Amino acid sequence: MAHHPPPRPLPESPEAPPTYADPRTARIVLILLCSVVFFAVVNGNMVNVALPFIGRDFGVSEGVYGWVVTGFSLTFGIFSAIHGRLADLVGLRRLYALGVASLGLTSILLALSPNIESMIALRFLQGAGSAATPALGTMIIARVFAPHRRGTAMGLIMGTVGLAASIGPFLGGILVELAGWRLVFAATAPLLFFAPLAMRLLPDNLDERFGTSFDTIGATLLGLGASAWLYAFNIVEQNGFGLLFFGLLLAGLILLLIFARRIHRVDEPFAQPEVFRDRRYLANSAVAFLTNATRFGTIILVPIFLIEVNHVAPFTVGVVLLPGALLIAIISPFTGRLADRLGAQKPIALGMVLVIIGSLITAYYAGGNIVGVAVGMGLYGLGFALIQSPIVNATSQILPPRLTGSGMGIFMMIFFLGGAFGVALSVTVVELQSATPSSWLGFEPGPGVPYSNAILALTTLAILALALTRGIPGLNPQPMEHS
């Protein structure tokens, strides 16, 4: 069936779809977005390799230096939603440029961190500012590219993610061995120069505004509720499943229930209630949360056990992770096009199956044969290549223009909070086990068993996500108001 360009919107209609950019402008925007994503992902993957060395230099355990990632993921997730709503009020272009500048500046400050406390605090700050880059990047794609071309654009960005992920561990290993972990953070400083480029190259009409006020109370309720839940899982290794754990879970639940009540009672809520009544949106969000939890938890564990148990060099960690990262780089552009033709559900379901198989293989070889770990992570990468761009694109397609900011913001918050939860869960499972734990796969006790068991715990999340893929929309889903 031939695709026709969308009609030009009526000026007086806030519900009308935007006029999509011409092909040349769209290409320029895509190049800019891919460049920013490349630097950001390279930095993230280098930090994962550097974590054990940061812990050694500051004399802290996994439970402490894990907050370098968890703290970032926590504020990153929460502020993904906040930036999504703020973009409706102040404009996409301005907020995106500010986020890019924030990521570059905090990277320089992190390179100068005198202790683990200041580093964790800066990572919280970095997560809050840099959350604008992916959250608003998906919104920019939704407003610049027509629906039938978004999958391809998302696929190219995910391909860039894979390329950066493949280079990141290599570069991180080299920098750590030659100059120490501080240069890992400083390497993201060039992003400072991309902020003025974003202001110049992004279309002016991206600063179109929807709404007149920001629901500060609603944003606070949502942020505190999500934080309480994540913090509960991060303190388990120190305090166990006691009164504090269940108290935080209860407090988080109460705050989120108050948030749900509030969005039905104010004129311009932080999130529109109809977003949460759409089953497709809920299914997409749940699958994204569980998938990213599996991903982030595993990405944290693999470099740790390779360095601590297998005693390999950081460069070798990059070699082990290379196949999966290259598969993401090569396959992602094609999965975006595949989702444009077949819909999101089928590629995502297949990707979840591959993630589960890869996870089981990685758990089997954890602390043992590093070739087996590389094979497992290769299947992991292939699976995520089939999941990432289709799930984001499917969500953008069911959101009408007036709900794109808050809807995509909430979705990206859920997506990245899944990563923070996965890190917390993986570290907690490792540290709660005894000195000679029993293998859930029936292995002889050994130094790799705690990591194997933790990866199996993450695998259960992937299995649940596979069951939920039935709710993901198929080809050409209708926006919410027409569903």
Automatic annotation (TrEMBL):
GO terms for molecular function: transmembrane transporter activity. InterPro entries: MFS, MFS_dom, MFS_trans_sf. Residues 29-477 form the Major facilitator superfamily (MFS) profile domain. Keywords: Membrane, Transmembrane, Transmembrane helix, Transport. Pfam families: MFS_1. The chain crosses the membrane at residues 28-51, 63-83, 95-112, 124-146, 153-175, 181-202, 214-234, 240-260, 281-306, 312-335, 347-364, 370-387, 408-430, 450-468. One of its GO terms (cellular component) is membrane. The keyword DNA-binding does not apply. The keyword Ribonucleoprotein does not apply. It comes from the Bacteria. CDD domains: MFS_MMR_MDR_like. Its main location: membrane. It is a multi-pass membrane protein. It is found in: Membrane. This is Major facilitator superfamily (MFS) profile domain-containing protein. The lineage of its organism: Bacteria, Deltaproteobacteria, Bradymonadales, Lujinxingiaceae, Lujinxingia.
